[in-house]
C-alpha cells in the first residue's frame, strides 16, 4: 500500500511528468526512435538539440516508462512510447501537445479563483476569448487542437462501439454526427452497419483539409456526407444522432439549445446517442471527476451524471433510455429517444 505522504508527493510531481512527456513529443524524440534503439547523442544531432540535455530528458522519459535505456546510453521506445508517434494508428501525440501546451497549461492557474467566485472558463480568462473562437482565430493552436481531436477520436471510437454493444439499429437509415469533426466515429459506425447513410455536421474550417476526412480513407465515402453548419442554428434531419464530447463543452442552457435544435430537425421516432465521460456515484473513482475540472478550466461546460443528462433530455423533448459503459475505457453512451407528445418541459 502506498504511504499517504507518497500519494501527496506523487500528485505534486504530476505536472513534472506531463511536461516531460510534452517536451519529448514537441521535440520529436518519439519520432526519432521509430527505427529502433539509438544513442541519445545521435538523436540530439538528428534533431539539432543539446546532447547533454537530450540525454537527461530521454533518461527521464525512460524513468516514466516511455523508453528503455541501455548501459551505453542508447534508448528504444516502449509500447507506451509508441503511442506518442504521429504515425501510430491510435496516436496520442496530439492530446499531449494540446493539454500540456501553453494555452491549456496557463488556463489552469485560474482554478482557485474560479472555485472562489463560482465562475468558469479559465481559458477565456487567460486568452480573452472562448476556446472555439481561439481555434478559428489562431492558426497554430487550431492545428494543435485538430490533431488532438483526431488523437482522441482514434482511441475513443473503439470504446464507443463496445459501449454501444449489439444495439439494434435496423430501424435507423440515416445517422448524423453533430460536431463530428473529421468523421472518424461516424465512419466507423457506417463501416459496422452497412445499411446506414451518415452526415457529419461541423463548422466549415473543420473540412478544409480534405485529406484529414475519414470517409474516403475508411471506404464509406458513398454513404457519408460532410455538411458545414452551426449546431445552434440548424441540424440535418436524421433517424439518429451522435454527439461525442459535445455536450460537456457547454453549460446546461446551451446544452438544451443544442438538444432542442436536434429535436426540431429529427425524424419521427429518432434516437440520440451521447458519448461522454459520465460521472459515477460518490464512492466510485472515475476519470470523469478529474476531467470535469479540466472542463471548468477550458470551457463553460462540465461532466455530468447519467441523471443530469436525463434532466437535459427532459427539457429539450427527449426521453432518457439508459447508459452503457465501456469495459476498457472511460467512455459511456447515454441513449435517448423522442419523448411522447406533451412531455417536454422548460
Fold and architecture overview:
- The protein is of the alpha/beta class.
- The chain has two domains: 4-86, Arc Repressor Mutant, subunit A (Orthogonal Bundle), CATH 1.10.10; 156-338, Rossmann fold (3-Layer(aba) Sandwich).
- It contains 17 helices and ten strands.
- The protein has helices at 4-12, 14-27, 29-32, 40-47, 51-63, 79-82, 93-99, 102-107, 111-117, 122-127, 131-137, 139-164, 184-192, 214-217, 252-265, 287-298, 306-315, and strands spanning 38-39, 67-69, 74-77, 174-178, 197-202, 224-228, 240-244, 271-277, 318-325, 331-338.
- The strands form two sheets. A seven-stranded mixed sheet has the order 6-5-4-7-8-10-9, with helices on both faces. It has a three-stranded antiparallel sheet with strand order 1-3-2.
- Helix 4 packs across helix 5 (51-63).
- The chain is globular.
Spatial arrangement of strands, main beta sheet: 6-5-4-7-8-10-9
User: For the terminal residues, how far apart are their CA atoms?
Assistant: 50 Å
Q: Give the second-level CATH assignment, the architecture of the largest domain.
A: 3-Layer(aba) Sandwich
Describe the main β-sheet briefly.
7 strands, mixed
- Order of helical and strand elements: HHHEHHEEHHHHHHHEHEHEEHEHHEE
CATH superfamily of the largest domain: Vaccinia Virus protein VP39
Mean of the pLDDT scores? Answer: 93
Large-scale geometry: globular
Question: Quick recap of the structure?
Answer:
This protein has 346 residues and is α/β, with parallel strands linked by helices.
Q: Which features does this protein show?
A:
alpha/beta, 346 residues, 17 helices, Arc Repressor Mutant, subunit A, seven-stranded mixed sheet, 46% helix, Rossmann fold, single chain, three-stranded antiparallel sheet, 2 domains
Amino acid at each position: 500500500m502506498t504511504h499517504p505522504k507518497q500519494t501527496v508527493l506523487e500528485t505534486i510531481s504530476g505536472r513534472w511528468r506531463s511536461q516531460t512527456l510534452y517536451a519529448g513529443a514537441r521535440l520529436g524524440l518519439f519520432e526519432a526512435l521509430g527505427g529502433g534503439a539509438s544513442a541519445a547523442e545521435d538523436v540530439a544531432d538528428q534533431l539539432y538539440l543539446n546532447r547533454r540535455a537530450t540525454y537527461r530528458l530521454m533518461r527521464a522519459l525512460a524513468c516514466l516508462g516511455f523508453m528503455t535505456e541501455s548501459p551505453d546510453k542508447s534508448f528504444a521506445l516502449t509500447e507506451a512510447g509508441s503511442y506518442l508517434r504521429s504515425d501510430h494508428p491510435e496516436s496520442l501525440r496530439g492530446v499531449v501537445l494540446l493539454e500540456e501546451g501553453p494555452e491549456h497549461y496557463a488556463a489552469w492557474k485560474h482554478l482557485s479563483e474560479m472555485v472562489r467566485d463560482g465562475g468558469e472558463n479559465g481559458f477565456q480568462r487567460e486568452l480573452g476569448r472562448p476556446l472555439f473562437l481561439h481555434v478559428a482565430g489562431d492558426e497554430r493552436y487550431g492545428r494543435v487542437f485538430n490533431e488532438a481531436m483526431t488523437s482522441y477520436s482514434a482511441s475513443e471510437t473503439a470504446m464507443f462501439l463496445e459501449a454501444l454493444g449489439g444495439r439494434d439499429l435496423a430501424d435507423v437509415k440515416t445517422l448524423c454526427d453533430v460536431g463530428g469533426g473529421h468523421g472518424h466515429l461516424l465512419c466507423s459506425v457506417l463501416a459496422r452497419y452497412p445499411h446506414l447513410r451518415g452526415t457529419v455536421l461541423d463548422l466549415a474550417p473543420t473540412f478544409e483539409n480534405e485529406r484529414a476526412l475519414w470517409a474516403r480513407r475508411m471506404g464509406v465515402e458513398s454513404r457519408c456526407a460532410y455538411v458545414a453548419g452551426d449546431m445552434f442554428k440548424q441540424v440535418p434531419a436524421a433517424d439518429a444522432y451522435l454527439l461525442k464530447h459535445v455536450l460537456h463543452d457547454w453549460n446546461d442552457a446551451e446544452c438544451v439549445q443544442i438538444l432542442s435544435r436536434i429535436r426540431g430537425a429529427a425524424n419521427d421516432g429518432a434516437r440520440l446517442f451521447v458519448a461522454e465521460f459520465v460521472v459515477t456515484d460518490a464512492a466510485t473513482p472515475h476519470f470523469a471527476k478529474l476531467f470535469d475540472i479540466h472542463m471548468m478550466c477550458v470551457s463553460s461546460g462540465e461532466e455530468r451524471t447519467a441523471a443530469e443528462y436525463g434532466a437535459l433530455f427532459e427539457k429539450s423533448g427527449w426521453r432518457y433510455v439508459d447508459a452503457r459503459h465501456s469495459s476498457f475505457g472511460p467512455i459511456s453512451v447515454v441513449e435517448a429517444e423522442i419523448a411522447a407528445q406533451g412531455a417536454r418541459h422548460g
